[in-house]
From TrEMBL, chain A:
Biased composition (Acidic residues): 250-263
Annotated keywords: Nucleus, Transcription, Transcription regulation
Superkingdom field: Eukaryota
Gene: LOC103271894
Name this protein carries in UniProt: Transcription initiation factor TFIID subunit 9-like
From TrEMBL, chain B:
Organism: Carlito syrichta
Lineage: Eukaryota, Metazoa, Chordata, Craniata, Vertebrata
Residue stretches spanning the membrane: none
Gene transcribed to yield this protein: TAF5
GO biological process: transcription initiation at RNA polymerase II promoter
Subcellular locations according to the entry: Nucleus
Protein name, per record: Transcription initiation factor TFIID subunit 5
Domain TFIID subunit TAF5 NTD2 as annotated: residue spans: 1-47
Keywords: Nucleus, Repeat, Transcription, Transcription regulation, WD repeat
Amino acid sequence: MESGKMASPKSMPKDAQMMAQILKDMGITEYEPRVINQMLEFTFRYVTTILDDAKVYSSHAKKATVDADDVRLAIQCGADQSFTSPPPRDFLLDIARQRNQTPLPLIKPYSGPRLPPDRYCLTAPNYRLKSLQKKASTSAGRITVPRLSVGSVTSRPSTPTLGTPTPQTMSVSTKVGTPMSLTGQRFTVQMPASQSPAVKASVPATSAVQNVLINPSLIGPPNILIITNMVSPQNAASESSNALKRKHEDDDDDDDDDDGDNL
Amino acid sequence: MKGNETMLDFRTSKFVLRISRDSYQLLKRHLQEKQNNQIWNIVQEHLYIDIFDGMPRSKQQIDAMVGSLAGEAKREANKAKVFFGLLKEPEIEVPLDDEDEEGENEEGKPKKKKPKKDSLGSKSKKQDPNAPPQNRIPLPELKDSDKLDKIMNMKETTKRVRLGPDCLPSICFYTFLNAYQGLTAVDVTDDSSLIAGGFADSTVRVWSVTPKKLRSVKQASDLSLIDKESDDVLERIMDEKTASELKILYGHSGPVYGASFSPDRNYLLSSSEDGTVRLWSLQTFTCLVGYKGHNYPVWDTQFSPYGYYFVSGGHDRVARLWATDHYQPLRIFAGHLADVNCTRFHPNSNYVATGSADRTVRLWDVLNGNCVRIFTGHKGPIHSLTFSPNGRFLATGATDGRVLLWDIGHGLMVGELKGHTDTVCSLRFSRDGEILASGSMDNTVRLWDAIKAFEDLETDDFTTATGHVNLPENSQELLLGTYMTKSTPVVHLHFTRRNLVLAAGAYSPQ
């Protein structure tokens, strides 16, 4: 565009002069001066890559020097990888004919968001949480209860009595389909009734959340994250009566934050 | 040279020439009597002479049709029957609102206090012969939210301004200032509430045009806390803390060249130079799926007017039809000789038009993937396409600055609008098809009279048989207005439901 602002051909380095000549030969008359620099960089990178490959090939063939055959081979291999072009027309027509023969699939009604199967979507969580094993041993005086929450399905805690998982939590694990062995986790149950009000006072709304990493081999479908949360319930007696009446529970419930969002 | 695809295409396919029988006889005699058979051999080997009987064409007619890299279209290429009619609107129970209901019942009975059925399409109970059968291709059923949208649409329609040469629309221009990221694609939702911009830095940005801010859905744990039975549950699921005017979507690894909102405003599609088409959720503002199939830049993508299907076209010279729940394309439309620059659905969702760098526009049937129309005539790569709302006509714009109008049913060119001096990169018909708006890289928006352009079409048998129409030189009469911007190429045009024009472009000080 501003060819007048280009360095005059006499003062340009020889490579740049050559590049300008190439552009002229290809019929390109208007270009920004930066184009020459960009083309030179590209040329340098391409040539060094080819020569590096050629060196590898010649050393593989146990030759003393790099000769033209090595370079030719390097160019050929490089072209297959980087400078690909779209498939030829007859190939496209052929696959089009194959693909267009199948009738259009019928659409299932009432299927919510219509997305491909999960493994082709980008909706799985791409993180795992580290376990904090140390905390379990220091949570003396608390009733630790494992809770299972699967992905976006939040299973609310129904306080087990005496620490055995209630049918509710067990149903979650069967939905996941894993034989959840709870032996691997810290499962301390202490029921000092006198201490629980103290716990209640000291831990008003939040709870000690402990996330434990489950060995993925225990999990059936790989993209469902199971977080077990150790929560200290406030008062076992009052809890068990309220546990199932979720809609009436207010904010001072000892709910944890489920952070496995699979949206 | 050997691997160059364009060369291979030229060598293997024949260039199509249409010539009248008399002219052909003259040419043949001339070439053969000279005793120099070289040229005659070349002609026989590389040209496909499509002979028609009748008057030879005038130079003007020939000039109108030439330009494509493969010659003109053969006559039988444009003979297939095309269902260009619109699908019937489903009957929706419109709840009776006292202030809005002033429509008269067809039978002239007094207004009764019960929900009246929508009578938009019920006047013509019998099937329009040009419309495809309702179940020709499977379409998603209407959900309740879709029905509500349609009711809103109908209410807005009653307030629509009727446009014409004496009642031009106002144009509201959305300039993307400081778009140093390089604006490469724009789309606006049908109800004009959201604008999406695709940029060269591989981001997609969504803005809210209305004062209502963009919110994303609450986290799963909060969702379980809300009362699911309340009436405003759809507002309650939105997280107020995330309200903002702009949302940025990260995910692509190359400039975003195409963007399209779904008709139900739940999804946004974007196509990019990295070869993928991504589906984004507009409720969580995250990416849901990446559709891989083109391995080369995808230049354009569009959702079907009924949702669920979308089409994409790219550098690999094919257009692909996808459904959101299939990870592979359902149809591959192959046939173009060069990149597919532009892909659009017909309003009845049964056909897809593609405009290509080989200067042709092809119309493809979704049902079986066949090419049912080939339109030649542009002298440069085609960058914009739009269907008329009644489904009968197609307008195309290319780098030669002309807008060409095509009759789909007959397969003929019916109009040529000259005026722009640079690539026409956006086209849109008004909601009732009275005005065609065109936006170009020469920083102007031009309005053309579409009704006048399409009236008195000579479509007698001779014309349809040979495909030659005499184009009137009436571009000046059809031009209703030229509106210049400061130096902003007009990348996108959109008519709101009330026929206000929204235009979008990025300010490029030059």
